[in-house]
CinA-like protein (Haoranjiania flava), 832 residues
Amino acid sequence: MKNKIYASIITIGDELLIGQVIDTNSAFIAAQLNKIGVWMRHRVAVGDQWDDIWEALDDSARVSDIILITGGLGPTADDITKPLLNSYFGGKMVVDEQTLQHVKNIFQSTNRPLLESNYKQAEVPDVCKVIPNKNGTAPGMLFEKNGKIFVSMPGVPHEMQAIMQEYVIPLIREKYELPVIFHKTLTTLGIGESFLSERLKDFEAALPGNIKLAYLPNVRSVRLRLTATGEDAAETQCLLDTQFENLRHTIEDVVVTLDDKTLDQTIAELLKQRKKTLSTAESCTGGALAAMFTENAGASQFFSGSVVCYSNDIKKQVLHISPEDIATYGVVSKEVATQMAANVRELMQTDYTIATTGILGPDGIEGKRVGTVWIAVANNKKVMAEEFSFQYNRQRNKEAAIKFGLNMLRKLILED
Amino acid sequence: MKNKIYASIITIGDELLIGQVIDTNSAFIAAQLNKIGVWMRHRVAVGDQWDDIWEALDDSARVSDIILITGGLGPTADDITKPLLNSYFGGKMVVDEQTLQHVKNIFQSTNRPLLESNYKQAEVPDVCKVIPNKNGTAPGMLFEKNGKIFVSMPGVPHEMQAIMQEYVIPLIREKYELPVIFHKTLTTLGIGESFLSERLKDFEAALPGNIKLAYLPNVRSVRLRLTATGEDAAETQCLLDTQFENLRHTIEDVVVTLDDKTLDQTIAELLKQRKKTLSTAESCTGGALAAMFTENAGASQFFSGSVVCYSNDIKKQVLHISPEDIATYGVVSKEVATQMAANVRELMQTDYTIATTGILGPDGIEGKRVGTVWIAVANNKKVMAEEFSFQYNRQRNKEAAIKFGLNMLRKLILED
């Protein structure tokens, strides 16, 4: 039987401890390790304090085989990680010629002079193996001690990510015999965690011991994750697939996406497959739908554009919404949402459109309560509108509007 | 002299350790504690594993006075935090009548039946003080042991945030005599960390011992943070203000925002103060500028709308960009950017506009290299366009385009 291989992550930097930045590196590293079957044991964040970093190294080495460290490698005076690692592993600082050349090249190619602090970036403990950082000046460093490996990486996300993918993951795969771990996820919309768990009681009770179900609730949606562990890859995958189909079948009516895909990604795939186009008309979502669809490469294959009509004048002048209807029914109404969808489709000549108008808060308008949202979707045959009444703050009302609106659009596309 | 009060955060949940969610709770808690002068010692994330949670409690209690715990309190079977805390603090589980009533009310108000798992949410260890959770069903819990306080909170961000702000922060303020800690920040654009540090060498060397300078680099910008600690609030604040003015003065030419404000927030403030309006015409930014401006309440005071013209047809049909100019100069050109800005300003009748057209990648078009971006800003007197050549991936090219574009707009507004 293969041994479980454990990893810890140490993130270093005062900015993490005073809450000035959100730690996205840990999630990236954890996801990468998880995919190859390394078990994350724990994750620690410490400030730029010698004793605390030292203790985090000791604590992590006690419970884990692999210790991954990010942050604290910049050229400025607040970074103490490199001298600390040097001292922790009993080395002395030397200039790494290859790194120095790399740093020089970076500065030459951008016509900037090399500063003293940049020279320092090429200094490394002589007891480490240098890991090249093609995207930046601070190199990664690999140490070994008592059979455990320690990798120090820069905190800049894309620099760390390249080092993880191109160096650390292959190294771990080569060094350890790893057990098998697979996940499959799906996302539900419009049903609470406890109702879902009630419906899944029997399913969960019948799960084999090596498969685990987890609930990840978010605004009006719940992501369900099935995790299978085992020895044999094909067998474990097959068992997971079977149980996943059971799960999906049990709650088919509330499942909106599979495999960690978001609703907008699912819609993008459908539209690209079918060679159809999309436009949006956004009042309360304020461009968030357009920004979401254009986030990923290839968006130009299906996304034409959007009219963000935040003010009523723009609704009238650009989208030709009837001023009488706005006066009669209010700007947050079925009539306005329907016209927005139909008119933006006409203006942008797309196969599908989605339109939003609502009151996200904090203040109400037109005597309507905060959280009232009308959403319309349209294709070449019809326009469908629906009213929602969310009960959250501004940000969560927007999130909910986006999710339910995208789900209306998804269903309309699947009807065709 | 006041003692330093130390805190640790423990976040619980397998989803953190497999990288499926990004931990935003820790940053929120850390920022709240920091503001009142509590020193964050470290922060640990562990999975839903009995021994690991137990060890995290022991480790945190060893170094900190206050231990804040989030996550693991949901109604479903994967949550073991509550029974563990019960056992850790040697209590027995009892039903809390007030919580039960609260849970019943929530379900009644939304016309949903109460499930068995919901009853369980009202069960708490008899050795804790229950902290009401007005936004959800899982209550917070306060424990005390050996003079240290432990607070367990739900992992749902807005539920945890309300408990922190309304209960935990006031409790800590009342219980401890806290030292003084203040921060001031500013953000620079277009200068690298090492060049900045070179320019600030003398400033940094002359800083008094209780003031610390930190660098937080991001895509093309660096946030600088001055932190002052002391005994007397007024004195510490005054010392910090003086040094901050020195800092600002030393690098005045590259400072773009102050006080942790983002560029879009700074622009929003300027426009609201001056009662001016804004529209955007977005090709490569795809609605991200509009979404950014409409994120915050009060956006309708200055933001009118946007035309997201992702496809060339929309550029021609909706924004009336000359097809000849697109054919002659290409869609990523000074001519197109300038016309986009001028025409959207005309269409939306706003005081200012910003227009973007560029190639973010991964693929180039028109024989131009990835990262080429033209941005134009306009007011009633002129249109100004500038070309940028970024060298990152798609996402970072967009971030850079947004920052430099917003800075062009900020400067144009300040000229008036």
User: Anything to note?
Assistant: Chain B touches chain A through 102 residues (CB under 8 Å). The first strand of chain B starts at residue 6 and ends at 12.
